[in-house]
Write a structure and sequence with these properties.
The structure is a single chain. The chain is of the alpha+beta class. Helix content is 49%, strand content 22%. The chain is built from five helices and six strands; from the N terminus they run ααβββββαααβ. The protein has a six-stranded antiparallel beta sheet with strand order 4-3-2-1-5-6, with helices on one face. β2 and β3 form a beta hairpin. α3 packs antiparallel against α5. The longest helix has 25 residues. The N and C termini lie far apart (74 Å). The relative contact order is 0.13.
């Protein structure tokens, strides 16, 4: 019985030590790797399908959906084609956070129709009391439509937010494009 308990405890200890070593080894710079390789790990951990913005050494910016990123390059899908970019050409990679422009416009329209419809309904109460329900419904619908349009416009006007996941500059500062 004691042998089984000691065997179980030993096995559990080995498994825990192995898991801890694997977790910590993911983020350490190994022998023969440079600091740029450790910074590039952030790109390799971005999930496929996420929207990224890639600033190149030439000063050009490429936007697209990440297909894959490995140790030597990354592949993006934009509206026209797939683009493979070599790691040596990349000075910065940024990951889009939150909703895209269309998602923000949709959310703005939903909020706007709710607020506009509510205010329009409150403003139409006198027409209902006066025996003009048609005008009350028309006023509420007009207010809701106006609110949806204004909300969609505001939502679409909000700029995208990006978080930097890779910078070729060792100190993390924004690297300058090549002239």
């Amino acid at each position: 019985m004691i042998n089984r308990i000691l065997l179980s405890a030993g096995l559990a200890g080995v498994l825990c030590a192995s898991a801890w070593a694997q977790k910590n080894a993911q983020f350490e710079v190994g022998i023969g790797q440079d600091a740029d390789t450790s910074r590039w790990i952030g790109v390799m951990q971005v999930a496929a399908g996420r929207i990224v913005q890639v600033h190149l050494n030439s000063g050009r910016t490429v936007n697209g959906k990440l297909i894959r990123g490995d140790g030597t390059n990354m592949v993006l899908q934009n509206s026209k084609e797939e683009t493979m970019i070599a790691r040596a050409e990349i000075r910065e990679v940024r990951l889009r956070e939150g909703r895209g422009r269309g998602g923000r416009a949709k959310l703005g329209a939903i909020i706007g129709v709710s607020i506009g419809g509510g205010l329009g309904t409150l403003g139409s109460i006198p027409y209902v009391n006066a025996g003009e329900p048609g005008l009350a419904v028309a006023g509420a619908a007009l207010s809701a439509g106006l609110g949806a349009g204004i909300g969609a416009g505001i939502g679409a006007a909000i700029p995208d937010r990006y978080t930097r996941v890779y910078s070729a500059a060792a100190d993390g500062s924004k690297p300058q494009p090549a002239q």
